[in-house]
Design a protein that fits this description.
Layout: E1 20-24, H1 25-39, E2 44-48, H2 49-52, H3 55-63, E3 68-71, H4 74-82, E4 87-93, H5 97-107, E5 111-116, H6 119-132, E6 136-141, H7 155-165, E7 170-177, H8 188-211, E8 218-221, H9 227-233, E9 238-239, H10 249-252, E10 267-278, E11 281-284, E12 299-300, E13 306-311, E14 316-320, E15 332-336, H11 340-344, E16 349-354, E17 357-363
Parallel strand pairs: 1-16, 2-3, 2-9, 3-4, 4-5, 5-6, 6-7, 7-8, 8-9
Antiparallel strand pairs: 1-10, 10-11, 10-15, 11-14, 12-15, 13-14, 16-17
Helix pairs in contact: 4-5, 5-6
């Protein structure tokens, strides 16, 4: 059952029920254009849907030039394909008979890709595709320093590529190289240095593939915090940013320098003041169930002197500086989430606003799609 939306089209922002996930359409559309302009003629864009979990947003990213979307889970990919997205890369390893059967069924309906880092997974993937009569693009995921998933660059990656091309139902599509921790390294030059090291690993592996007579159709990867460096290095054919469409408070802490595009904050949690226990404190109705705090507390938007300091399940503490304009009971505050991806996964709807008025309501179809 889909939960009732907290707003109606035509409402003013201050009339929207709280907590609500607000999307500023002007800022969002500007962010899509900035990425498209930066990437045009240099790399393909494959926007990451793990951030937004919404086919309506994916369609707008594709209209702005993206070739398709990335997902992290089969259920996310199912939601995107059901929503009309025809080209999806599951940029993750998929293990287990039930998941692989669903992946194979989906591969008969859309152009689908997946990552692997283990020969046993390759064999299981091939068997699932054969049973379904399907084919799928398969990427080597390189271990780039994350100590998470991925096959070691060089000879181990070459051996895995040979295992893939030996399978008639699998199309070897290239290399997946993404360094997630680099996205939030604050200093520009430190971020650039990490990606340069990843590029060396990719070049070495791609060279071994070529020497073995194995074509590498594509190198894909990169995120919002580093994609400019991947483009500069000329090793990647495709980039996978996700948070660029919205931006969050954690990304706002990164050092910026040209030629990086300036993305705007487009995503907010609208919170209502539910209590005023003292002159320097307001309690809002948006706590841990309304905004993820794994990357820090949300920031109060455009209200100088108001600081969101802590949260419990249903409550947020907003401290008020003596010189600040204090909010009253029932007033609405916009909060910039610390981390957009897990915050979005808490909601069923985007309340899309332009000029302070609700223009659209978009369901977050893949909310909770973790399997």
């Amino acid at each position: 059952m889909t939960i009732r939306a907290p707003a109606e089209i035509g409402m003013r922002l201050e009339e929207v029920d709280t907590p609500a996930l607000i999307l500023d359409l002007d800022a969002f559309e500007g962010n899509l254009k900035r990425l498209a302009d930066a990437a045009r003629g240099r790399v393909r864009v494959r926007a990451h849907a793990k951030t937004h979990k919404c086919p309506e947003i994916g369609k707008r990213q594709i209209a702005a030039g993206a070739v398709g979307l990335c997902c992290q889970k089969v259920s996310e990919a199912e939601a995107m394909v059901e929503g009309g997205i025809a080209d999806v890369l599951v940029s993750n390893e998929i293990v287990g008979a039930r998941k692989l059967a669903r992946l194979a069924a989906l591969a008969k309906r859309a152009h689908l890709g997946v990552c692997v880092d283990n020969a046993d997974n390759v064999r299981e993937l091939e068997a699932a595709m054969q049973r379904a009569g399907a084919r799928i693009d398969v990427y080597l995921e390189l271990e780039t320093g994350m100590r998470r998933c991925g096959v070691a660059p060089g000879e181990p990656a070459l051996a895995l590529a040979r295992a893939i091309i030996a399978c008639p139902s699998l199309r070897f599509a290239g290399i997946h190289a993404y360094h997630g921790r680099a996205q939030h390294i604050r200093a520009v030059e430190e971020r650039r240095a990490v990606i340069k090291n990843v590029a060396l690993q990719v070049k070495h592996t791609k060279s071994l593939l070529q020497e073995a007579g194995i074509a590498c159709p594509s190198v894909t990867g990169a995120g919002t915090g580093t994609f400019v460096f991947e483009m500069e290095l000329g090793v990647w054919d495709e980039i996978q940013p996700g948070s660029y469409a919205f931006m969050d408070w954690d990304y706002a802490r990164n050092e910026w320098a040209p030629p990086m595009p300036r993305f705007e904050h487009a995503l907010f949690v609208l919170a209502g003041v539910m209590s005023r226990p003292g002159p320097q404190l307001a309690i809002v109705d948006a706590g841990l169930k309304a905004s993820s705090v794994d990357s820090g507390m949300p920031a109060v938007w455009e209200r100088p002197g108001l600081t969101f300091t802590r949260a419990s399940d249903e409550h947020g503490w907003v401290e008020i500086a003596p010189s600040a304009a204090a909010p009253g009971l029932g007033d609405k505050l916009l909060l910039v989430p610390g981390h957009c991806d897990p915050t979005i996964n808490l909601y069923d709807w985007y309340v899309c606003v332009r000029g302070g008025v609700v223009e659209a309501l978009w369901p977050i179809t893949a909310r909770g799609a973790l399997y």
